[in-house]
Amino acid sequence: MIAAAVATFGRLDVLHNNAGITPRKVAIQDLEESEWDRVMSINLKGAWMVCKYAIPVLIDAGGGTIVNTASLAGVRARPYRVHYEASKAGVISLTRTLAIELAPHRIRANCVCPGGVDTPGRTASLGESESADHRQPHIDRLPIPRLARPEEVANAVLFLASDESSYVNGHTLLVEGGEWAGTTTGLLR
């Protein structure tokens, strides 16, 4: 993949790790080791592997930026998703370590942490009934009462990848409509 990018564009300036899966809910004691390994392999090891092979190319180019996609789940805990939450917390930690190690090479590393994003993949991962039963009450409690549009997350990635954020390094940018700040439960509207 890295070689194909260099062959096509002549160099690599930006890496955006955005691959990941959202597994179904399961209690910790019922989580199979194989499912833990699958989630870690895709969400965390995948990001590390792409970085491993992109970093020498970015160094040869004289610098660049890495933007990893983690999740709001990486900074807060929810029940029945320990494998997902731990994998995304790992992506945040990976990003911070990259930011420190790669700074002498003029490579910045940051990550975006989306909350809920309105994509077909979200519905598929949650399941139709769970999505229909639980989606709207959750959304109604958000400070901005809707899911993010994919382009809103993409704009955050674009900012972190651009020179507009040239002094931002090791940062975790939450793109979640204020959900981390709290909910509107009890708020008079």
What's this model, at a glance?
The chain is α/β, with parallel strands linked by helices and 189 residues long. The chain has six helices and four strands, in the order H-E-H-E-H-E-H-H-H-E.
> What's the quaternary structure here?
single chain
H-E string? HEHEHEHHHE
What is the share of helical residues?
40-55%
Uncertain runs are: none
Class by helix and strand content?
alpha/beta
How would a textbook summarize the main sheet? 4 strands, parallel
CATH class: Alpha Beta
The outline comes out as globular
What does this structure look like?
By secondary structure, this protein is of the alpha/beta class. The protein has a single domain, classed as NAD(P)-binding Rossmann-like Domain (Rossmann fold, 3-Layer(aba) Sandwich), CATH 3.40.50. Helix content is 47%, strand content 12%. The protein has six helices and four strands, in the order αβαβαβαααβ. It has a four-stranded parallel sheet, with helices on both faces. Helix 2 runs parallel beside helix 3. The protein starts with a helix and ends in a 14-residue tail after the last strand. 26% of the residues are buried. The mean pLDDT is 91.
Notable features of this structure?
189 residues, alpha/beta, Rossmann fold, 4-stranded parallel beta sheet, 6 helices, 12% strand, globular
Write the layout of secondary structure elements.
Layout: H1 2-9, E1 14-17, H2 33-60, E2 64-69, H3 82-102, E3 107-114, H4 120-126, H5 128-140, H6 150-161, E4 172-175
Parallel strand pairs: 1-2, 2-3, 3-4
Helix pairs in contact: 2-3, 4-5
